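Title: Prediction job returns without error message
Component: structure pipeline
Severity: low
Priority: P3
Assignee: unassigned

Description:
Job completed but the reporter wants confirmation the result is attached to the right record. Sequence as submitted:
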Amino acid sequence: MSNALLRIRAAMPLFAAAIAAVLASSMAFAQAAPAPAPGTATAPAAKIRVACMGDSITAGGYPAILGKMLGDQYNVKNFGISGMTLMKAGDRPYWTTGQIGFAKTFDPQIVTIMLGTNDAKPQNWNDQKKGTFLPDYEALIAEARAMPSHPRVYVMIPVPVFPPGAFGINGKVLREEITPVVLKAAEETKADVIDLYTPLLKIPDAFPDRVHPNRFGSERIAAAIYSAMTGAPLIEAAAPTFTEELMVEIVAANKDAVHYTLDGSEPTKDSPRFAEPFKITGTTTVKALGVGDAPSRVAVAVFQKVAPKPAATAPATSPAGR
């Protein structure tokens, strides 16, 4: 493991208390609406609209995955654009793209914001500009809340940038300087927080260019957001496929007990209770349920056992002179 990655991991305790304090105010989860009285006619329920604002990590596709996880009751729309900064003074400000206006027309009940990664480039994060990050972030939250439906706003702690970084993005700056300001913006505006850094730090192989997630990484981002929005547990593993065995962990979205199944059946409070990471040795569908005052929605993850790739063999060479 590189010294740079070790430094990033060593820095995590510096932010744990701050993250925990802000997340503690974000634990009110969606509850099912009461059933109508017998014989009462009801119109089809309008879908809950979710607007996902962000940069290339958003534009790359996690909103579509999140929409499938949330189901037919939700309409999730992608308002991400590659290369965007949160700061108005940045080299490519999100503010000038028109996406805020498009999101307003969409009239969402929920808005997610994941910006700040491109602000960690040296031309953006400098003494002349970085002081505008906090007021600009708070202004974007205010813009979202001023939309007609007055949506609930989720501020997302950006995913890691793995050493040595790429595209001029400084992962150390993102984590140690920008992330605390993101948390401060959320705290001062009382916005909900979703931590994407911690679960995604565990799967560096899901970031082939050290910045952008592959399909599995986008699925993990969507799963973390789904967990925060619904109270479903978060199912974690190092990869979606494996050749021999794989360790699986289930993280409760709150203090609920977590019950799970490994055969694809729906978990109940009578299913095995998760206590510690477990090993799977074959293709497995893991389903998990949080059980507290009320059951959560069910989280689902499929892990597939695959055949090992054959070892590469050197091409045969002909004897000299033939």
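Comment from assignee: result matches the submitted record. The longest helix spans residues 3-23.
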